[in-house]
Amino acid sequence: MRNRYYTQIKIWMTAVLLLWVAACTDEPGVGVKGERDGNKPVMICAATGGLGIATRSGEGQVGDSVAIQNRTMLFTYPSYPDGEMASAKCVFDEAGFGYVYTKVETKEPLMWKDIYVKDKEKNLVEAVYLDNLYNYPVQEEILNPDFDGQKDNRRYLQTDNFRMMYFGKQYPKVADDTLGNEFKRMIAPLGTPAAEEVDIIWGKLENVGFGTTLQFSLQHKMAAVGFRFHSEVGELQQALNGDKIRVWVDYLRIWMETPGFEGKESTEGNQAFSRMKGEIYQDGQPGARYSQKNVFWVKDSLLQPDETNTVFSTPVWVLPPDRSQFRVFGHRPELFIDLGEDKVFHGLFPETMDWWRYDDNKHEWVEYKNVPLKFWPGYQFTFNVKLLDKVEGREIEFVNVEVTGWSTKLIERPVLGESGITNWDDLMALAKAYNKNPSKTNYRLMRFGMWSERENKWVFNLLRDIEVPVGTTLPEFNGDNFKIDFRGFHIKVGDTDITEEQLSTK
Question: Using CB atoms within 10 A as the burial measure, which of 193, 336, 337, 492 is most buried?
Fold first, then answer.
């Protein structure tokens, strides 16, 4: 059955998928047009696109797209004949081709004739959706038995998981949950099987041409957080290398639902996730009452050291975005690190940050000053933390926070200990930041490497081969208190290998 329906379209999709892997289109949607034949199966390709990088230094590049492969997702569509929303599983193979089945077991494909066409003159389907929440299929819309026919019908519909979705209770209950709630924890370390389930990726296409191959550019709807620790105090630097480190955060929201709203029947005000809008909603005041203590990043284990063993990182954790907690209600998260032997350091998260964001219309980076610190969906937050010698009650300093869109760099390097140069834009951004301030206290440069006390200079790591055309102008580093650890990789202009001496003006 599969070969009968899919062979010809798979040839078309090969070209489409190659375009995805190279670079995702700016305006995803209708792909390669097929014949307007209702007996054709629905075919899908999809990719997650990075939103770019933003740091306090303001340099960076737009993230790459990553094709969806070897996983199951959920395709949601208006069904024939009257447009009711229905869902079918979409199985992506190792090549990135998505096959939509109404019955996965028998490989019965979803046909275009099964999809409702709203604009019959232009043969357009109003909207279709793709996400990874196949454990939460769209339910049939049923009227609330108490509906008296006199009031707004929408407010009396039973809960469905298209406009609103609940993620269920946590079984078994978590022993150290200080609030004792039963909601499912939507948090997991990146790169683990649990993270694939809790990290929501979602996409929507509007006004889709009938019979076309569908190209989705999916967005991450969760946030990701990690920490990088360093210290200029020798004793603390050594302690960071211990094997019984504990790092945790108090006052974080790690579930979608709000205590007190469980089981209510309403389409407004208490939804955890709207598949229709792709929005995560958390009701209630997000203060201490709705926040969890003892959320662990590391527990009785090693931190991940970088190449020079001077910066130590936690894993990156996926967790629900929180867009109001840190600013409005005065209950900012608090970071703790226990190095053992009564060396416990803690401090409140900073209230604000300087935010750089890539403007797709202007094709330039735009700076926003003193932005309230919030965990935006689709971004990774990397907190660079300096441990102090408890001078005047100060224990830790949040040196900076790097804000990175989900991208191939994040997927390939889920542990934050590996800073370095990955492309030409990185090299140009590094030179700019270095020339502004080459001192060892410029922690903006930690994105590309580390200060070496032994060599008394910055050591920047080259993580990939970089090749640019002949005639490309080299960046200039105004000084020589740096070195580039090439690690077997090369920087080439044409066929010429570039050395660090060629980059220095001294």
Answer: 337
